[in-house]
Amino acid sequence: MSETPVIFAELPAASGKLGRVTLNVAATLNSLTLEMVDLLQAQLDAWRDDDDIAAIFIDGACEKAFCAGGDVQALYRSAIATPGGPCDYAEDFFAREYRMNYNLHTYPKPIVCWGHGIVMGGGLGVMAGCSHRVVTEKTRIAMPEVTIALFPDVGGTWFLNHMPGRTGLFLALTGASINAADAIYTGIADRFIASERKAEVLDHLLQQHWEGSAAANHARVRHVLRPLPQQSKSRAGMPPAQVEPHLATINTLCDGDDAHAIIDNIVSLQTDDPWLAKGSESLAHGSPLAALWISRQLREMRLASLKECFQSEILLVTNIVRHPEFAEGVRALLIDKDRNPRWQYRASRDVPANVLDSFFSAPWDSNPLADL
């Protein structure tokens, strides 16, 4: 396999071509760097205007993961290099990553994402933006940003708010891990196909006589993918759902008069259910400040457009990387790995209102994504 962090190929089909994108940094579980974001954006731009490319297939070279997120350690180095900001690398990374995510959501040609293995953070941003999202029996999705004092970004403001009931808020606050069944139920995936059938999917796509119409080509992709789950001879079936059976409990836990009450409901939960218990524990050990900005971001952007969601995310994340809470969260979890973060506030109710407000105030004269 090439040492190039992202491999691009143009595969001849029965007519037309299939563009293939493979994330190729197994050592970091394909975590996105600024270089990878720029490579993806440039190729998407080129293929958008190439009449020979009818559809795109995105996967990861690593069997363990499609993409485990962004290169958080590089973001950490940027944050500690200039406390208070500007944090040039981190801020450039987020602005260009969000632009790439928005382009995926609005891309005219069909994009099939093979979301196999770990799909976290920035990887979920890529998958969620694709028009045809496939998950497998080994898919493991999470956005545990509360544990490093970040928030579910890369479009999370959009897709979490479109999940059933209060599921999006619960997943955002707890970083709870979900599987293929949950991904389809919550709307961030479209198809379950056993992982052993990947080559078959590619082969079927390459057998297609692609047409000039993007709408017709989307229909052809659906025609290819639709029968595969039913035809599987594998024992690797759909895993048991976790979210849907817990929806009533999730809705009750997230039914509070304010963010503090909801946080209290989840943290104080007494349960023998391991999935719920793990989520409760994760929030309890996460940043109280982050729990508040996560709750506020989702609440304030509940009715926002996709474009407005990304514009609000770049504002919030810029303020976050300039604040020491983020660097401390990354230090404790990923740098020193002592898992003992020294959060600035012991509980959400200790956070002054003006401190929380400051994260939602524009840190610059012009939003970097104003032209989306």
Task: Please describe what this structure looks like.
By secondary structure, this protein is α/β, with parallel strands linked by helices. The chain has a single domain (6-358), classed as 2-enoyl-CoA Hydratase, Chain A, domain 1 (Alpha-Beta Complex). It is built from 17 helices and nine strands. The strands form two sheets. A six-stranded mixed β-sheet has the order 1-2-3-5-7-9, sandwiched between helices. α1 links the parallel β2 and β3 (53-60). α1 packs parallel to α3 and α3 (88-105) packs antiparallel against α15. The longest helix is centred in the N-terminal third of the chain and has 18 residues, at 88-105. It starts with 5 loop residues before the first strand and ends in a 14-residue tail after the last helix. The model has no long low-confidence stretch (mean pLDDT 96).
Main attributes?
alpha/beta; 2-enoyl-CoA Hydratase, Chain A, domain 1; 6-stranded mixed beta sheet; 3-stranded parallel beta sheet; 17 helices; 9 strands
Describe the structure concisely:
Helix content is 46%, strand content 11%. By secondary structure, it is of the alpha/beta class.
**Would you report the number of β strands?**
9
Low-confidence stretches: none
Helix content: 40-55%
Q: What is the assigned CATH homologous superfamily? A: 2-enoyl-CoA Hydratase, Chain A, domain 1
The structural domain count equals: 1
In N-to-C order, the SSE pattern is EEHEEHHEEHEEHHHEHHHHHHHHHH
Biggest sheet: strand arrangement: 1-2-3-5-7-9
- CATH class wording: Alpha Beta
Query: How does the major sheet shape up?
Result: 6 strands, mixed
Rg calc: 20 Å
Give the number of helices. Answer: 17
Structural class: alpha/beta
User: How much β-strand is present in the residues?
Assistant: 5-15%
CATH fold type: 2-enoyl-CoA Hydratase, Chain A, domain 1
Return the average pLDDT rounded to an integer.
Answer: 96
